[in-house]
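Translate sequence into structure tokens.
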Amino acid sequence: MSSALTAVSAAGLDHRVVTHGPVTSVTEAAEVQGVEIQDLVKSLVVRRAADDYLFVLVPGDRQISWPKLRTLLGVNRLSMPDAATAKDVTGYERGTITPFGSLHPWPVIADERLRGRTISLGAGIRGTALQLTADDTVSALSATWADVTDPA
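Result follows.
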């Protein structure tokens, strides 16, 4: 069991584990999981400063709006770490990243369009997803709801 599955269970969250084969896109992942693309959530790692990261939960049909995120965080510069750094700071490879069970409890911002939806997140294991409500996810992670995306 991945540390993500352990963390979700320990938090007492009602969830479903979905196992699927390899996928090559967000669209394909949504199809094989039987969810709408906006419910397939990309857990993106963003670097604020040296050793200061956060997770941004982005609907599958949207992308981070860097101006909105910088304004929300009150910073002038943000960046996405490379794959090796993302793994070092979360414990997860790209495509499996989730805030649940991360090596460090980085802050989490969830795009407000996820509110009230059932979402599918990475589960820390390739080919596996967690389906749970966005509201429970945000509560369990002490995350912040915000408008931080634009259409993809």
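Note: The chain has a mean pLDDT of 96.
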